[in-house]
Structures are given as structure tokens and as C-alpha cells.
Specification:
four-stranded parallel β-sheet
Length: about 240
């Protein structure tokens, strides 16, 4: 039986987070999830409460099984932004459903700043050799403007000059990064991503959607450790 999830983003560019969520679900669940995406401006015009926007998203996709609500932390602390989402979810008037908060620090682009190969391909210069000023994992959440940093790195990576550089649109190319990333595990160094993965694991466990591999993998790690360190253990299966 297939399930579906819906990602509610701040804006249309947050669609790239679908690839992050897909990767996390494959790591943690054996279920097949169909995915939906919508964003605030597609649902409402002008100002509206987050609760109302969530309700509109659920009316648009009434058969969704799992909801992801995205808000960039921006200049606000991650926990405060997450609390805003949770508070809005409590106020929805329709039947509640499992929901996970997606709160990158400071914005979505921060979670695309680690894969050099994907960035070079998105910049249309996969064989480029020029060094790129990629931040370390510890620096990513300290960047004041991850979007500007990512755009500058794409410009570095493209290797274009003159009129060709003038035609290069980093805002367009940035959408090509996430589809080329096969492994988002480097993001596990980031507290905001750790929080997302932990919350998702809890939801999957609660609803019986977690894969058997989630319990097998730690066993494999244990056996490897024992082999390396010459330790013998007894395991009851």
C-alpha cells in the first residue's frame, strides 16, 4: 500500500526540499510515498495565518498521510520557528494528521551547500577545476545569507566570463542541485537537520511506517565494531 506526503513550503523554490525528504524516507521507511508540493502564495493571496494556510494545503491534498510544514528560521531561533509551526498545527479545524516541521537554519539553500559535484553540474561545468569556497558543516548554519553564498559559489563554479556570465542565472540553476545529490547524510552534522530526522523517525515509529532496516543497520554497525575490536557478543534473535 502506497502512502502520500505533502510538503507545504514558504515559497515555490522550497520544492527542492522534496529531495531531502525523499532521501530521509528511504533511509527510515520501507513504505512507498507519493509526494505533493504546494506553497503559501499558491494557496492564499495576501496575509493569512499559518493555520489557515495549512488548512488550505490539506483541502488541496485531502488524502495526504503525512504533512511536512516548512518555514525558514531566517533570523529567528530554530526552536521558536518550530514552536510557531506546532502551535499553528494545534489550531487547525479539520482532522489532524501526522506532521513534521522542516526548519532549515537560516534558509533552504543552506542544505544545498555541501555537495561540490552537484553544484558543478548545476553550474553547467561538471569538469571545472577552479576551487569553490564551500563552507564547512560547522559554518553552514552561521552564514548570514546561505542563498547569496550559494549563488556566489554557482557563479564561481560556472567558469563563465563576459556576456556568457551575464546570461548565467544562479537563481535558476540552484534548482538543479538537489536532484543530483544522492546522499544527504553530510547534513547530519547540522542541528536543524538532526531535529528533522529525529522528529520524522518518531512519527514513522508511531504509525508503524518504519522500515525493518532501521533496526538492522545498528546491528550491522555493532557486528562491524565487534569484528574490528575482537569482541564476542551473544545475540538472541
Amino acid at each position: 500500500m502506497s502512502l502520500s506526503y505533502t510538503l507545504l513550503g514558504d515559497g515555490s523554490s522550497d520544492k527542492v526540499l522534496l529531495y531531502v525528504i525523499d532521501w530521509l524516507l528511504k533511509q527510515q521507511s520501507s513504505q512507498i510515498f507519493e509526494r505533493n508540493f504546494t506553497y503559501r502564495q499558491e494557496l492564499v493571496q495576501g496575509k493569512a495565518s499559518l493555520t489557515f494556510v495549512i488548512e488550505r494545503a490539506l483541502h488541496l491534498y485531502p488524502y495526504t498521510d503525512l504533512l511536512f510544514v516548512h518555514r525558514d528560521a531566517e533570523k529567528i531561533a530554530h526552536d521558536i520557528r518550530k514552536h510557531e509551526i506546532l502551535d499553528a498545527l494545534k489550531k487547525i479545524k479539520i482532522q489532524p494528521l501526522p506532521a513534521v516541521c522542516v526548519v532549515p537554519v537560516r534558509m533552504t539553500e543552506a542544505w544545498l551547500l555541501f555537495d561540490e559535484d552537484a553544484i558543478r553540474h548545476a553550474a553547467e561545468n561538471p569538469n571545472g577545476k577552479m576551487p569553490l569556497s564551500l563552507p564547512s558543516p560547522k559554518e553552514i548554519e552561521r552564514l548570514t545569507s546561505p542563498k547569496k553564498s550559494l549563488h556566489n559559489i554557482l557563479i564561481q563554479a560556472c567558469g563563465k566570463t563576459g556576456r556568457r556570465l551575464e546570461k548565467f542565472d544562479p537563481d535558476k540553476q540552484v534548482h538543479l542541485i538537489a536532484p543530483r545529490i544522492d546522499d544527504f547524510s553530510p547534513l547530519r552534522d547540522l542541528p536543524a537537520f538532526q531535529n528533522l530526522e529525529k522528529d520524522l523517525q518518531e512519527i514513522l515509529q508511531e504509525h508503524g511506517w518504519q522500515t525493518i532496516f532501521a533496526t538492522i543497520i545498528p546491528l550491522q554497525v555493532l557486528l562491524y565494531y565487534c569484528a574490528v575490536h575482537n569482541v564476542i557478543v551473544a545475540i538472541n534473535l
